[in-house]
Automatic annotation (TrEMBL):
GO BP field: lipid catabolic process
GO molecular function annotations of the record: carboxylic ester hydrolase activity; lipase activity; metal ion binding
Residue stretches in coiled coil: none
Name by which UniProt lists this protein: PLAT domain-containing protein
SUPFAM superfamilies xref list: alpha/beta-Hydrolases, Lipase/lipooxygenase domain (PLAT/LH2 domain)
GO cellular component terms listed in the entry, alphabetical order: extracellular space
Cell compartment(s), UniProt: Secreted
Keyword Calcium listed: yes
Residues that, per the record, bind Ca(2+): R169, D171, D174
PROSITE patterns: PLAT (PS50095)
Active site: S126, D155, H242
Matches recorded under Gene3D superfamilies: alpha/beta hydrolase, PLAT/LH2 domain
Biological classification of the source: Eukaryota, Metazoa, Chordata, Tunicata, Ascidiacea
Annotated organism of origin: Ciona intestinalis (Transparent sea squirt)
Length: 445
């Protein structure tokens, strides 16, 4: 599509006009007379594909207002709805043009208002993430000194961009610091909304990056009975995981206190993360400097020579989405006499744990995601456990452990085994502190 058809618009907001948009255009006299302050950082917010209704996405002004509440900055909202509310392939093609337009605006602000490239932070969702990438590339055409400070990609769109060629998508070379939040990498008909590859200096995968807590087809189906039922159901079932990236980013802006930090942990894989083995933030010989990072608005670049790090974290299904992470290590007693009825390969059971602190207790937590687990005498098993930060139990003092045997159809297949614990170790990732708890007595079913 041509620039005339896309009609990209630019809206400036500052603390002088926090609730009213000031339209600007990349023209010298207009920018000179605008409220833009070149001495302050500038945030540029870019929406993505527009699915059902050709309206400016609500999350953009919401993020803008939240940023201005926290910081005295310039915020420029990019409205390219007319180029995004078309067939997807056309919208994907339009990202190059819109990216070039945003890049030109940045260069004009640098030329006319003496703004500095490193003071620009572009935030793009879905297709908007690639718009941000193309904008960064456009600014760099003026020379190596002209590299924007930061680009945040919120679940960058996958269809049409999953290429090894960094020139056709968002890439960590597009800014001095590129951070990416992945929330919808699962495939449907061999296609995912979000890109399942590391694109930035720091790539964050909340809940593994594929399925987000609170998003499900069943939950979406219940919306059919609501006044906006069918439209809401279509939107929720197809975009809930994808849109969660914008919600996480918005909530992260307000996370100025440690209790609401979206702390993420460097890990080789989500499977390792779910065993809680990646929660330590310190390491020997300075190797722990990049182990832990905050996700979202307050993210910072990795230190040293590591120019690409992937992080994992768990979130809840509701704002502010933050949880506390614990590793639970269970040491099963190696006493063959007490496991006399058990096969040497162990037996299957469902395991449950309750944490008790100085200010209260958690609800009972199903270990291993509630799935049956193979218990083997003398072994140590590790689980990741999370707790909503809204429930502060304080320092852990004890735990309650319970187990269930799978349903048996006849008494012949149900041996009367017991589980015997030697000790349980709890590692609190937020406090970076370990608690060693010894078993008071054998734990029976």
């Amino acid at each position: 599509m041509s620039p005339h058809k896309i009609q990209t618009e630019y809206y400036l907001r500052t603390r002088q006009n926090p609730n009213v948009d000031q339209p600007i255009i990349p023209e010298a006299s207009n920018l000179t007379n605008s409220l833009f302050d070149p001495t302050k950082p500038t945030k540029i917010i870019i929406h993505g594909y527009v699915l059902l209704v050709a309206n400016f996405p609500e999350w953009v002004p919401q993020v803008t207002e939240t940023i201005l509440y926290q910081e005295d900055v310039n915020v420029i909202q990019i409205n390219w709805v007319k180029g995004a509310h078309v067939e997807y392939d056309n919208a994907a093609s339009n990202t190059r043009l819109v990216g070039a337009q945003v890049g030109f605006l940045i260069k004009m602000l640098m030329e006319v208002r003496n703004a500095r490239a490193e003071n620009f932070h572009l935030v793009g969702f879905s297709l908007g993430a690639h718009v941000a990438g193309f904008a960064g590339k456009t600014v760099q055409q003026a020379g190596k000194r002209h590299t924007v400070g930061r680009i945040t990609g919120l679940d960058p769109a996958n269809p049409g961009f999953n290429s090894d060629n960094s020139s056709v998508r968002l890439d960590r070379s597009d800014a001095k610091f590129v951070d990416v939040i992945h929330t919808d990498t699962h495939t449907m008909l061999n296609m995912a909304s979000g890109m399942n590859r590391n694109l930035g200096h720091a790539d964050f995968y909340p809940n593994g990056g594929a399925y987000q807590t609170g998003c499900s087809a069943w939950k979406a189906m219940r919306n059919i009975a609501e006044p906006r039922g069918m439209r809401s159901t279509v939107t929720d079932s197809t975009t809930c995981d994808h849109l969660r990236a914008t919600q996480l980013f918005k909530e992260s802006i307000n996370a100025t206190g440690s209790e609401h930090f979206m702390s993420a942990y460097r890990c080789d894989s989500y499977e390792k993360f779910k065993r809680g083995v990646c929660l330590r933030c310190s390491g020997n010989n300075g190797k722990g400097r990049n182990r832990c990072r905050r996700m979202g608005y307050w993210a910072t670049p990795p230190h040293g020579k590591q120019n690409q790090v992937q992080y994992y974290l768990t979130t809840s299904g509701h704002a502010p989405f933050t949880v506390k992470h614990y590793q639970v290590q269970i040491h099963w007693r190696n006493d063959t006499a007490t496991y006399s009825n058990v096969n040497i390969e162990g037996f299957k059971a469902k395991l449950y744990l309750t944490l008790h602190g100085e200010r209260g207790s958690t609800t009972e937590i199903a270990l291993n995601d509630g799935a049956t687990f193979q218990v083997i005498a003398g072994k140590t098993t590790r689980f990741l456990v999370t707790q909503d930060t809204a429930q502060d139990i304080g320092e852990i003092q004890r735990v309650t452990f319970r187990w269930e045997r799978p349903t048996c159809w006849t008494w012949f297949f149900c041996p009367t085994e017991n589980i015997h614990l030697k000790r349980i170790k709890i590692f609190d990732a937020e406090e970076q502190r370990r608690f060693d708890l010894c078993s008071r007595e054998n734990t029976d079913r």
